[in-house]
Amino acid sequence: DTDGDFAAIQGEEFHHGLFFVLCRCRAGIVPISVAGFRYNRRFMTIRQASAGDCHTIAQFNTAMALETEHVHLPPERILAGVEAVVRDRTKGVYYVAEVSGEVVGQLMLTYEWSDW
């Protein structure tokens, strides 16, 4: 399956039930998709973020900026950036981790280095 610059080249399953797909992109070969695995006795799913995840991702980004950089970023600016990435994969791609239907983590892949 090829989507833009991402092409799945290999999938492997490990003893913990973790399944990931290695993909080739501009950054090289990276794992970008996890079907699901158990975490703390609960099933965790990793999936590509959708428009419905943007507010949660923006809240996580705002909290991360405060915790790691001691910076208060404007929430509307963060939300606009997250929405732009979710809408346009040429800017990057977000993945979210869900437990019991709740987003509990995120990962962003981008083509250039940026603090935010």
Write up what this structure looks like.
By secondary structure, the chain is α+β, with helices and mostly antiparallel strands. It has a domain at 35-110: Aminopeptidase. The chain is built from two helices and eight strands. It has helices spanning 54-69, 75-87, and strands spanning 2-3, 6-13, 19-25, 28-34, 37-39, 42-48, 92-99, 102-110. The strands form two sheets. It has a four-stranded antiparallel beta sheet with strand order 1-2-3-4, with no helix packed on it. Strands 5-6-7-8 form a four-stranded antiparallel beta sheet, covered by helices on one side. Strand 7 and strand 8 form a beta hairpin. The longest helix has 16 residues, at 54-69. It is globular. The model is unreliable at 1-24 and 29-35 (pLDDT under 50).
Keywords:
116 residues, alpha+beta, Aminopeptidase, four-stranded antiparallel β-sheet, 25% helix, disordered N terminus
Number of helices: 2
Overall pLDDT level: 74
Strand content: 35-45%
Q: Residue ranges: pLDDT <50 for 5 or more in a row? A: 1-24, 29-35
What is the correct CATH architecture of the domain at 35-110? 3-Layer(aba) Sandwich
Distance between the termini: 30 Å
Structural class comes to alpha+beta
Please tell me how large the radius of gyration is.
15 Å
Tell me the name of the CATH homologous superfamily of the domain at 35-110: Gcn5-related N-acetyltransferase (GNAT)
Structural shape = globular
Mind describing the biggest β-sheet? 4 strands, antiparallel
Under the CATH scheme, which class of the domain at 35-110?
Alpha Beta
